[in-house]
Amino acid sequence: MVNGVVALVAVALGVGLVLALVALVGTKVLGLGGDNGDSSARSTVHQSMYLPTPVETDEATGPLVTLHTQDTDEPAAGDSGAQVPEDEPTTELTSETPAAGQISLQALATTVASGERIYFSGVYPGGEGAILFVQRFENGDWADFPASVGVTNGTFSSYIFTGVSGVNRFRVVDRDSGTVSNEISVTVG
Fold first, then answer.
1. Residue 101 contacts by C-beta under 8 Å, 6 or more apart in sequence?
2. Assessment of whether the complete model's pTM goes beyond 0.70
3. Which of 5, 6, 64, 124 has the maximal Cβ count within 10 Å?
4. Is the domain defined by 104-188 classed in CATH 2.60.40.1930?
């Protein structure tokens, strides 16, 4: 019986010694251990983030966004025989921003599957920090949609979901100023 107790104590000491060595090596590998008491080494070894010196930049006059304004009813660029009369304006990519205080809204896609995200974005010059609320046209009037988006650097973007099939019309509203965006139409389903 004494031999059994001695063997049990010897095994316990051996296992304890192995676990202690594993813990010691693990703390060194993971960098959790001390720095051998050198306080000057401790202040530079653990620095992990570099912040550059701030530099003043030129302020932009407005958001630098290009909106695609081509209507889907117009023929594509490669269609033959379709010429636009000179007295009618053409739609093309433009880099002009809306006037200060106007909200310009656009959808990434005009057709999505049911339950798919409807991505939208836009510009709101002069609307920095504004919260825009999404509205959907239903039953002959604009109704609040359970979504909102913030304006940062004069721009905003987000997405919404809807299970309502067919053509859905959306817009965003700045309730503080009463400013309303243009409407977008997205076919769901």
1. 125, 126, 127, 177, 179
2. no
3. 124
4. yes
